[in-house]
Amino acid sequence: MDLASIAASAAIAASAASPASLPPPVGQPAPLTRADAPAYVVGEQWTFKYVNELEPSKNSTYTQSVSSVEGGRAIINGGATVLDANANLVKLGPASYEPSDGKLRFPLRVGDSWTSSYAYRTGTWEALGQRQTTVVGVERVDTSAGSFDAFKLEQVVSWSAGGGNKAEGRTREQDWYAPAVGRIVKADFVDQETRVAPTTTHVELVKFSKPQ
């Protein structure tokens, strides 16, 4: 074999051994680029920790369990909480959002941006919110329930009270939505009412389970 043939054979062998030509390792997850709306199942359960830095008396840990799925909505804890088909809150205890809190919109992709509006009511309190949401990236986020690949969303809500109440303000949020869990697994937000001290709140997933 002449020198040219030997060199060509060596080049082919080197190319075949190149890591770039090898398939990805078996079992390695594909990069997170898109998320479709979650499909909830009865018995699916999440436990969250809620921390209010301004009013620690409101701090709590609570569990939400899917009781039924009706028309794409997840009925949780017998109806105490309701999620729409986009995993947005429609009802949370005595509070309601009409049509929903509008935090999520599917399919979810980095770079997506949207606006939404809603009416929030609890007791005698009523407010109208205008939300601007942007999906800014994908991150590995750590929670008490473990680490998850999640879409990071930045949100700004301008709100004004109605129903005879006189107040207005702005809320800035950072939320991390994890497709593996079908929920926002971590949220940090600061609510600034005009001429009132800001309220800083943190919500984090503590535990997650799904029927086998």
Structural description of this entry:
The chain has 212 residues and is mostly beta strands. The protein has one helix at residues 3-17; strands at 45-52, 60-70, 73-76, 81-83, 89-92, 95-98, 113-122, 125-143, 146-162, 168-178, 183-193, 199-209. It has one domain (3-209): YmcC-like fold (Beta Barrel), CATH 2.40.360. Strands 1-2-3-4-5-6-7-8-9-10-11-12 form a twelve-stranded antiparallel barrel.
Quick summary:
By secondary structure, the chain is mainly beta. Helices cover 7% and strands 53% of the residues. The protein is globular, with a radius of gyration of 23 Å.
Residues in helices, as a percent range:
under 10%
Please give the alpha-carbon distance between the first and last residues: 62 Å
Mean pLDDT: 88
CATH class: Mainly Beta
Global morphology: globular
- For the secondary structure, the number of strands is 12
Main beta-sheet annotation: 12 strands, antiparallel, barrel
Give the oligomeric state of the chains in this entry, treating copies of one chain as homo and distinct chains as hetero.
Answer: single chain
Annotated CATH architecture: Beta Barrel
SS summary, helix count: 1
Number of domains: 1
Element order: H for helix, E for strand:
HEEEEEEEEEEEE
Q: Can you tell me the CATH topology?
A: YmcC-like fold
Low-confidence stretches: 3-21
Question: In what range is the share of β-strand residues?
Answer: over 45%
